[in-house]
């Protein structure tokens, strides 16, 4: 199981509000807050997300092919997280909607994709039952 995911930043103070807003929409807040690192989540909850200035002192860069997926409650929650991201400096990478065909149980992957202010790719997703 994944405990948390960390993304790099070159300006923690400028980018933290983006994650504060998304965390609030997801019902959590900051659980660790240091000069060069902030983590959002709940100590007794699922995986958290961290934003950090690189320890080696080099510039933070976007990982090509790297994406963090945030589990939403339902399609409306996906939309709210996506809208929150865009309203807080994020950019669109694919509006919320179903992706692919339903699986054998009739579940469809539903997601909205966005990037943070530094270009890190994220999505909000849920599984939707096609009844």
UniProtKB/TrEMBL annotation:
Residues 87-107 are annotated as: Disordered. It comes from the Bacteria. InterPro entries: Glyas_Bleomycin-R_OHBP_Dase. Coiled coil: none annotated. This is VOC family protein. It comes from Parerythrobacter lacustris.
């Amino acid at each position: 199981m994944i405990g948390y995911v960390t993304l790099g930043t070159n300006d923690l103070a400028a980018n933290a509000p983006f994650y504060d807003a998304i965390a609030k929409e997801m019902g959590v807040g900051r659980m660790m807050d240091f000069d060069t690192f902030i983590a959002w989540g709940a100590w007794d909850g699922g995986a958290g997300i961290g934003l950090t200035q690189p320890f080696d002192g080099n510039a933070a860069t976007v990982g090509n092919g790297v994406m963090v997926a945030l589990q939403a409650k339902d399609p409306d929650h996906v939309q709210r997280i996506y809208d929150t991201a865009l309203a807080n400096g994020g950019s669109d990478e694919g509006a919320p909607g179903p992706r692919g065909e339903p699986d054998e149980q009739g579940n469809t992957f539903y997601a909205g994709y966005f990037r943070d202010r530094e270009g890190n790719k994220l999505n909000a997703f849920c599984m939707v039952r096609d009844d």
